[in-house]
Every structure is written in structure tokens, then in C-alpha cells.
């Protein structure tokens, strides 16, 4: 029998998970940006700004955005690396990537875009100065393999940024649960005609490793040093892993 994993609160065969995640993002792609603003009250923009502004990316750097979706971080990286730098927008999902590519093209931003699985990156060793993955790691089946791949493609001295939902400050969790399990699926139904995908979102957040566990996983994947910063009382955390 196939090894088991979780898809939200459901237990599924490992071989099934990527297909189920793909269904979610094919379904939500067109409404993804408007739902992001609505669900987070615009806070996702603040979290992404913090990520971009504390990354230390310089003109000329090479940056890989994994699970980049509709391209919010990629746009910020392009502005920071300048004409001499290189930014790759990648994602496993063609619908998300198409929305991202078209949106950036409409804004006059041209960059290499590639369909790529974070667990098997089509890039050489020691190539990038910075790798980012925002709200993507949670959806991957083999997070340990993905973190090792991210470590592999970084140059020594390079950095991985993982922006992801995390463990919220305990006193807030009853309110956060109420919001996630009651309000989110209703918003999903009304705006994207898809309650199930937003139920998966709430469940997958609860199943994702907490701050300290993810830090440990990054160390085990080979990063020499890992630190993290809680945002919005731990609703989200930004982990930084340094390749020595
Ligand atoms: C919540 S969206 C995040 C998009 C974007 N990074 C952002 O912050 O707005 C999660 C993305 O992860 C992508 N994804 C899921 N599994 C992946 C994998 N194994 N490799 C690469 N991308 C993956 C999905 O297709 C989706 O576009």
C-alpha cells in the first residue's frame, strides 16, 4: 500500500495529494488575488512587503520564486535585482502560473516563467542567491525533499525565505478558528463558488508544522542557521535559512 499523508484533515495516499492540491489551485486561480485580499483584509500584502524588505536582495542577484502563483513576490524581486539580475517565477500549477505571467506582462514586467515542482527543481546546484516560497510549502507532499532541493540550488552564502501560515498565539486561537472554519468557506462559496477549497485552506494551515518544527526541518535539510519572525501574532511566520 502507498504511504499515507494528509490533505487538510483527510488522510490520503501520498500519490494522491499533488493531484488534489492541483484541483484546488486550478479551481481558485482566477479569483485567487481578490480572495487573498478579502480573506486577509489586505494583510497578505504587509506580510509580503516585510519579506521583500528584509531579504537583503541586491542588484544583480539571482532569485527563484517557488510556488510563486500569481507573482506577488516575483514582482518585488524584479524591482530589487534590477536589469543585471535574474528572477524566475515558478509554480507546479499551470492555471496559477498563467494568471501570474499575464498579470506581470500587463504591468510591463517580463521574466522567465517555468512550470516546476518544488520537490524536483529543474535548476543546477549552487545557482541562486535567494529562494523564496510563500504559502506554498504547506501544499507540498514531501516537505523534507522540497527543502533539500531549495538548499541544493542556493549558492553557499545564499538564503531561503519561507513565508507560511504558522501557529497563532494561543489566546487568539478560538477567534482564529471561528473565522477560518466558519467565515472562510462562506466567503469561498460566495466569491469563488468553491467552499471546499477554502475549507482545505483552513485545514492545511492547522496541519502545517509550527515555527520550531519547521526551523528544525530546515536545519535537517542542510541549512547552517535558521531564524524566524512571527507576523500578526504567529498567524504567519517568515523563516530564513542560511546556506553555509
Ligand atoms: C497559496 S498559493 C501561493 C501563491 C503565491 N506564492 C502567493 O503567496 O500569493 C500556493 C501555490 O503553491 C503551488 N504549489 C503547490 N504544490 C507545489 C509544488 N509541489 N511545487 C510548486 N508549487 C506548488 C500551488 O500551485 C499554488 O500556486
From TrEMBL:
<feature type="binding site">
    <location>
        <begin position="117"/>
        <end position="118"/>
    </location>
    <ligand>
        <name>S-adenosyl-L-methionine</name>
    </ligand>
</feature>
<keyword id="KW-0949">S-adenosyl-L-methionine</keyword>
<keyword id="KW-0808">Transferase</keyword>
<comment type="pathway">
    <text>Quinol/quinone metabolism; menaquinone biosynthesis; menaquinol from 1,4-dihydroxy-2-naphthoate: step 2/2.</text>
</comment>
<feature type="binding site">
    <location>
        <position position="91"/>
    </location>
    <ligand>
        <name>S-adenosyl-L-methionine</name>
    </ligand>
</feature>
<feature type="binding site">
    <location>
        <position position="70"/>
    </location>
    <ligand>
        <name>S-adenosyl-L-methionine</name>
    </ligand>
</feature>
<comment type="similarity">
    <text>Belongs to the class I-like SAM-binding methyltransferase superfamily. MenG/UbiE family.</text>
</comment>
<dbReference type="InterPro" id="IPR004033">
    <property type="entry name" value="UbiE/COQ5_MeTrFase"/>
</dbReference>
<dbReference type="InterPro" id="IPR023576">
    <property type="entry name" value="UbiE/COQ5_MeTrFase_CS"/>
</dbReference>
<keyword id="KW-0831">Ubiquinone biosynthesis</keyword>
<dbReference type="Pfam" id="PF01209">
    <property type="entry name" value="Ubie_methyltran"/>
</dbReference>
<comment type="function">
    <text>Methyltransferase required for the conversion of demethylmenaquinol (DMKH2) to menaquinol (MKH2) and the conversion of 2-polyprenyl-6-methoxy-1,4-benzoquinol (DDMQH2) to 2-polyprenyl-3-methyl-6-methoxy-1,4-benzoquinol (DMQH2).</text>
</comment>
<comment type="pathway">
    <text>Cofactor biosynthesis; ubiquinone biosynthesis.</text>
</comment>
<dbReference type="GO" id="GO:0043770">
    <property type="term" value="F:demethylmenaquinone methyltransferase activity"/>
</dbReference>
<protein>
    <recommendedName>
        <fullName>Ubiquinone/menaquinone biosynthesis C-methyltransferase UbiE</fullName>
        <ecNumber>2.1.1.163</ecNumber>
        <ecNumber>2.1.1.201</ecNumber>
    </recommendedName>
</protein>
<dbReference type="GO" id="GO:0009060">
    <property type="term" value="P:aerobic respiration"/>
</dbReference>
<dbReference type="GO" id="GO:0008425">
    <property type="term" value="F:2-methoxy-6-polyprenyl-1,4-benzoquinol methyltransferase activity"/>
</dbReference>
<keyword id="KW-0474">Menaquinone biosynthesis</keyword>
<dbReference type="GO" id="GO:0009234">
    <property type="term" value="P:menaquinone biosynthetic process"/>
</dbReference>
<dbReference type="GO" id="GO:0032259">
    <property type="term" value="P:methylation"/>
</dbReference>
<dbReference type="InterPro" id="IPR029063">
    <property type="entry name" value="SAM-dependent_MTases_sf"/>
</dbReference>
<keyword id="KW-0489">Methyltransferase</keyword>
Amino acid at each position: 500500500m502507498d504511504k499515507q499523508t494528509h490533505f487538510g484533515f483527510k488522510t490520503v495516499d501520498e500519490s494522491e495529494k499533488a493531484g488534489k492540491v492541483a484541483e484546488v489551485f486550478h479551481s481558485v486561480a482566477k479569483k485567487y488575488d481578490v480572495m487573498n485580499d478579502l480573506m486577509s483584509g489586505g494583510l497578505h500584502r504587509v506580510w509580503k512587503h516585510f519579506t521583500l524588505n528584509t531579504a537583503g536582495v541586491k542588484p544583480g542577484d539571482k532569485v527563484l520564486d517557488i510556488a510563486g502563483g500569481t507573482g506577488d513576490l516575483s514582482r518585488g524581486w524584479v524591482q530589487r535585482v534590477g536589469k543585471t539580475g535574474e528572477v524566475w517565477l515558478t509554480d507546479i500549477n499551470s492555471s496559477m502560473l498563467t494568471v501570474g505571467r499575464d498579470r506581470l506582462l500587463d504591468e510591463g514586467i517580463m521574466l522567465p516563467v517555468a512550470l516546476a515542482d518544488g520537490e524536483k527543481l529543474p535548476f543546477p546546484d549552487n545557482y541562486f542567491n535567494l529562494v523564496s516560497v510563500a504559502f506554498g510549502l504547506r501544499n507540498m507532499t514531501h516537505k523534507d525533499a522540497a527543502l533539500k532541493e531549495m538548499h541544493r540550488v542556493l549558492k553557499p552564502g545564499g538564503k531561503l525565505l519561507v513565508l507560511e501560515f504558522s501557529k497563532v498565539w494561543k489566546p487568539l486561537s478560538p477567534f482564529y478558528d471561528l473565522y477560518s472554519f466558519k467565515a472562510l468557506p462562506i466567503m469561498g462559496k460566495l466569491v469563488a463558488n468553491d467552499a471546499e477549497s477554502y475549507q482545505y485552506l483552513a485545514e492545511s494551515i492547522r496541519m502545517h508544522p509550527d515555527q520550531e518544527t519547521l526551523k528544525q526541518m530546515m536545519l535537517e535539510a542542510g541549512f547552517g542557521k535558521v531564524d524566524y519572525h512571527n507576523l500578526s501574532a504567529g498567524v504567519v511566520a517568515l523563516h530564513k535559512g542560511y546556506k553555509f
